Amino acid sequence: MRTILLLLLFLSATAHAQDASTYYATANQQFESRMYIHAAETIGKAIELDPASVDYRWLRVRSSMTHSAKEPQLKTAINDLNVILASDKSERTYAALGKAHFELAQIYNHEHQDYALGEKHYTNAKAAYANAKTASGNPDYDYDIRDAENYLKELTAKK
């Protein structure tokens, strides 16, 4: 009886792994077909089954951070990037996090006129870009840092 129970547990775990990889493959196809919203939803199912997978989270970040990204997608990307940072403190991760925070700050600043949240996300963008610069040694991030600083100055003037 105990052997049967262990076998069932093993098969269940294997089925979940197969389901997650199937969702991942489907989401990849959707992403390649520019069906970004569907890809983000599909890969979300894989993340529910395997929340530790960095590959799954990167696909959701890429699916969420399109040119038409809205507040919910950017928040999801920021959450995923913060999870990824636990194991990958690379230039790529910090740069994506900076971009997500910057874009979200733009939404709060221009669409919602919520200057406090805009300020928070510009500050987070600046910090993430500084970390990307440190991780890579690439001085081009100075431009991104300066952009965030300029928007912060603009918000301070509105107060």
> Based on helices, strands and strand pairing, what is the structural class?
mainly alpha
* Average pLDDT: 90
Please indicate the percent range of residues in DSSP E strands (runs of 2 or more): under 5%
Shape: globular
Counted by DSSP, the helix tally is 7
Main sheet attributes: strand count, strand direction, barrel closure: none
Q: How large is the radius of gyration?
A: 19 Å
Helix content: over 70%
What's the N-to-C terminus distance?
70 Å
Point out poorly predicted stretches. 5-16
Number of strands: 0
Please trace the helix and strand order, writing H or E for each element.
HHHHHHH
Short description, anyone?
The chain has 159 residues and is an all-alpha fold. Helix content is 83%, strand content 0%.
Describe the model:
The protein is mainly α. Helices cover 83% and strands 0% of the residues. Helix 1 packs parallel to helix 3. The longest helix is centred in the N-terminal third of the chain and has 31 residues.
Explain the layout of strands and helices.
Blueprint: H1 2-32, H2 36-49, H3 54-64, H4 71-85, H5 91-111, H6 115-136, H7 141-158
Helix pairs in contact: 1-2, 1-3, 2-3, 3-4, 4-5, 5-6, 6-7
